[in-house]
Amino acid sequence: MNEVNHFRRVVLIWLVSSVILTPIVVLAAQGIPPGDGSVQAAGQTTDNGVLLGLSTPVALAVVVFFIYSLVAFRERDTAAVLDGPPVRGHAGVQLWWIVTTTTIVLFLAGYGTVRMLADGAGGGQGPNPIAKPTSSVPALPVQVIAQQWKFTFRFPTYGGVETNHLEIPANRLIAFHVTSLDVIHSFWAYQLGVKADANPGVDNVAYVQTKNPLTFNIHCAELCGVWHGYMFDTGAVVSGLQFASWIAQQRARFAPATKLLPPYAKQYFPDPQHRGG
Amino acid sequence: MSAAGKRLVGVAICAVVVCVLIGLYIGLYLTTSPGDASAAGVAGPNGTNLYLATVAASETTDPHPSWVSYYVVDAKDQNWRHATTFELPANSLVHVTIYQFDGQSGLRNPFIAQATGIIGGTFGLNGKPTVVIGPDTASHIFAIPQMGVSVPLSGVPDSAKNPCANAPCPLSTDHETITFTFRTPGKGLYRWQCFVPCAAGSIQGFGGPMQTVGYMDGFIKVV
Amino acid sequence: MVAVSTPKRPIWQRLIGFNLVSAVVLAIVGWLIGYWIGGRIHAPSLDFFAENGQNDISILLGYLFGVIGFMIGMGFANYPIRRLLGHPPTLAEHESEGEGLSRYFRLCTDHKVVGLQYVVGIGFFFFIGGLNAMFIRTELLNPNSHAFGPNQYLTLVGLHGTMMMGMMTSVILGPFANWLVPLMIGCRRMAFPRIEAFTFWLLMAAGIVLLTTLFFGGFQTGWTGYQPLGGQGTAGYDAYLGFFALVGLSMCLLGLNLLVTIITMRAPGMTWSRLPIFVWSVLATATLMLLAAPMLLAALLMGAFDRAVQTGFYVPGIGGSAYLWQNLFWVFGHPEVYIVALPGFGIVLELLPVFTRKPLWGYRLAVAGMLGVTLLSFFVWQHHLFVSGINADLRPFYMLSTELISLPTGFIFLCAMGTIWRGRIRFTVPMLFCLGWVFNFLIGGISGVFLSDVPSDVTTHGSFFSMAHFHYTIMGGLVFTLFAAIYYWGPKMTGFKFNERLAKIHFWSLFIAFNATFGPLFALGLMGMPRRVVTYPTNLQALNDWVSVSAYVIGLSMLVFLVNLVWSQLFVREPAEANPWNSKSAEWQLPTPVPVHDFDRIPVFDGDPYPYGVPAAPAPVGIAPAGGTA
Fold first, then answer.
1. pLDDT at residue B35, rounded to an integer
2. What separation in angstroms does the CA of C181 have from each of B57, C111, C185, C434, C492?
3. Is this model's pTM higher than 0.90 or not?
4. B–C: how many Cβ contacts below 8 A?
5. ipTM tops the 0.90 cut
6. What confidence score (pLDDT) does residue C92 get?
7. At what angle do helices C429-452 and C480-494 cross, to 10 degrees?
């Protein structure tokens, strides 16, 4: 047994297992959430696939190396205390490792940046978004108002009506303006691939380009008090016509409440020390 | 066993005793929540009746005598019980009557001043059919978000001559009476809460009783 | 034990003095004084708390004075007062071995006693934290019925997280660095022995403060304690503030002490390039502790002011910002994550040479890796805030810096791989735990890439995915190396062997149950389950039940460890050899148990710490291995 032999075997096992497993992992990754609910969600699924595909050979390299070494170099003579070769390093291997890992890391950071800037990736971007997806029709603004423990939704382009549930039109760019009236919440529309923290006094914008009609789950994703776990709802992406009739219906239904609302604003500051009686 | 060994065992026994005490301490905390008792609605001819009362402060004997709270009462505002888990039958009408003794606080989001999810779309405020109240006059909200039920409860005006401080409050003190009907869905555990920042003295009025099951929050067991 | 001829005083006389008993008494007295003063300060003009029957000033001052009383009762005020009165400086304080067990219940400046105090003290709170995890999983067995109320559940979540992230921060540096660093670098004590003892008792006071939260209704904010939610909490949140303030102070001082010791007290010949890699990891961690903890203290102080006197640092609308807490907390919090990870790197790289019988491969690279992690960890914190809307333009930078941190971490893996290559590997229990670390930390690191990538983080942030990720790095990383250290150095510290069969059962059950518990949590997170929820969609119940059952197996596995600990250390008491692992490190050349003053004479180091495979290499230190007068 010589050194070259061992190393060649490890590399061979790694190559074979990577070639077999990486495509399988990448294919399987097509099925992982959040799915195809919106352009942003599909982008995240692709992103997860790329990351998984890249990390599979890396993880396999470490795992194969360790399993091989543990089997091949285990001490057979446990009675005697014999030392291994006093190798203290290898400049070439170290350099090679640094170059490889640096390349992977820089690629990941670059890839993530490009993907994020392309369509905002569905994440909250604060009041002045840098990643604005383009669309022929202007984005439909929807304000998401979080409070302990409920989301309400306000449509400034439809008379500032506020609703209890969320419906949005299909194949349309939506701009969620997420804000909070009290503590920090997080608006998570799971199937749409949208997550944006709701901060009091902050207008946090997240874009999503919807696709076909579907229903989606809304969850609060930031611990916001005793009913955090129950702060969920179901929303729907519906056809443009259905949306028009739904919003008209909501405007009629909530006309009394709409009159009481403060004018639409990017953020609201209710009396912070509101003292009850 | 050596002397040191004996001492070590002694220390170990002490440690076990401490552990048991701490286990009890945590266990007791986990299993006791004041006002978490369960109360069933009263069956009536066309559905179940649920009588509740809201007060500015709990009984003086309560662990938190200065906290606002819901109470379960009977039709004549007698027999006060500190319970916020209500047992109701599935798929049936529930007639709720709330005797509201607390003052006005105001809403953080005026949208909630409009009632939703109730039969007929209106609730009775002292007998008068109402859809929406002034957001600043709200004292509490009775809301079951999973059922879509949300009813604003008007507060007793500050100018009231005979306000009630601590529970139990007799009907002779100033109060508002709110009545409404909703239909329960299938069996399950649902939560209800208040949306008015009525927890006096805490940031945004949402501390203490607003975040403690047994005061301004609770469960509805639909059976 | 040799029979002592001096007549023993009755037990009640021995209990009088500065020890745990007087400390508890003075702590209660201090609490009452603080509570009373708070009541006097409490004025109706501060109507923030006037109406809710809660006086945070009293509670906070109660904690402050209670802890001061505890430390005075422990005897920490004696020496400064004596010096003020003109007494000459002395050093040895309760170091004489004749006092036996009682040394462990009072102020003792022997670094080996403090090390053992830390093991037992932190271990105690570790098991309370673990018990909370069992309760959490019990609640999550069923989404539609609740074993506990939502308040109680969230308090459990917060207590578990806070206990683990607070107390366990010091779990390697407290016990093992205090015990080992002087032996490894060849000095007889730490640079500041009284501060060393002080950090331990401060941490114990912190643990008790945290437990009192249940008495005041708990806190429903999780370990991150986000504001302004924290400001709404009942008095239980004051316990959270007090706890983390004490932990932060303890960490800061512990880091300072270790830093000064390592820099100034190395024996002749212990050059920087001869420092054992574990000491390097301690150095890196101590730096992080010293620099990160003050951020936390600042955040906590403002939180306390917000609650007690209505300052509004964190309340938007009256000049505050909810982002402020998030920023300050994570500027502390992300280095904190590496504070718990780095000592694990050191332990793995310290143990691998022993069990592969090879020198550490790539010593300089490993050091560079640790220092690189230390430096970079201060520049990554906003990856916790990727979707929060803060500094959205800077997200590419934080993405890059976060992913860059996998480079120095990769160095550690490369050094581990180089060390086992062509070694003579022995599968002892500590070695098994180190190998467990390799696998767990690999999974933890790779899952971290998903969280550092903004598009992927949008879904995984705040979900069970991130929860699984940090349990892989902290439990799979820190806790596995903690057990490696306990099984490796434990017999040296106590003088008694562990039962190897039980230890192996412990490892295998823990390793399998750990992966069975936290692997599925990645899936749960991707399937849309947020963290810290008391209920969840019913279609996730099967997976959650599987996780809960595996979590119980982790609990059972920990019981196996406890049984082993009690059985082997208290009842069987089979004396450990001086060097059972045939290690060539300095600490193993000393007799077991290690004499009170460690070395008869200060050793001189004349070689690197891992002279494996070098024929007739001299022992790494010039320690006369005999002489151990107990």
1. 52
2. 59, 9, 6, 20, 14
3. yes
4. 102
5. yes
6. 59
7. 150
